[in-house]
Amino acid sequence: MKNPSKLAIVIVGPTASGKSDLAILLARYFQTSIISADSRQCYRELNTGTAKPPASVLAEIKHYFINSHSIHDNVNAALFEKLALGYADEIFQQAPVAIVCGGTGLYVKAFCEGLDQIPPVPSDVRERLRHMYATYGLSWLQEEVRKKDPAFYRQADVRNPHRLLRALEVWEATGQSILNFQQQIPHPRSFQILKIGIQLPRKELHQRIAMRVKQMVEAGLFEEAASLRAFRSHPALQTVGYSEVFDWLEGKYSREEAIQQIIFHTRQYARRQLTWFRRDLAIQWIDAPDPDKALQLVKMKLSDLES
């Protein structure tokens, strides 16, 4: 049964749209904490390339699921669902409002609706596929999924090895598409949910992306990625910002070409994020990271719950 006095404010949108700044403002206003729904910010080793909030903000406002794991841990959406619901319970012990903020659509879905139960994958299957991926790379993984689970491949983010490996694991273990286990039946939550999406004109979003990449480079992205080169086969590091620097280290790009590739791939990622979130009709969109508009939506929701 839902508790009308508990509200999770879920802030979504494409990368560089201003989600974190809005979440921080709302957390200050409601004197509460933030749960990150970002599949990369949880890794302690990844800092510059994941746009984590500054240390001063992390010290001021408690953020869950940031710096909580190592790249050597097996982190996925199912684990996030379990942890995030526990985080929310902890927050609701202290405050009536919790903030969830992130651009990883599957993690947001896991928190709000839950995930379907997928049969467990034997450890030897998982280890074999991860070894094959580490040996033959992303192009091999993409081709395997395309051949064995074409229905999933057609709608997948084919640059995301986490998702591709998961689909291939399920196919190898069950002989069925992972889509067969995704029935889209929402799991009830014990709290209310308000989803706020941030959208920007494409030109402005592209400018913000280019500025963020520039800031990351100035803050030491190339140096951080170089220090992690030995772990580049880990799925956590097969992500925009790190992949391009690894290619630069191997001489595939000049430094400037690598920067432009990061900007280009980040724009592509932002487009995929928007495609995912626009399918969710429960999201209330605002045309900029507008604190006044967001507060208005939250106050209206709280008023509805009290009436």
UniProtKB/TrEMBL annotation:
Protein origin, superkingdom? Bacteria
- EC number(s) per entry: 2.5.1.75
Give the catalytic activity. adenosine(37) in tRNA + dimethylallyl diphosphate = N(6)-dimethylallyladenosine(37) in tRNA + diphosphate
Q: Which Pfam families match?
A: IPPT
Q: Which Gene3D superfamilies match?
A: 1.10.20.140, P-loop containing nucleotide triphosphate hydrolases
Does the keyword ATP-binding belong to this entry? yes
Gene Ontology BP annotations: tRNA modification
Chain residues that bind ATP: 13-20
UniProt GO MF annotations: ATP binding; tRNA dimethylallyltransferase activity
Q: Where is this region: Interaction with substrate tRNA?
A: 38-41
Q: Which NCBIfam families match?
A: miaA
- HAMAP family the UniProt entry points to: IPP_trans
What's this protein's name? tRNA dimethylallyltransferase
- What is the protein's species of origin? Thermoflavifilum thermophilum
Gene label: miaA
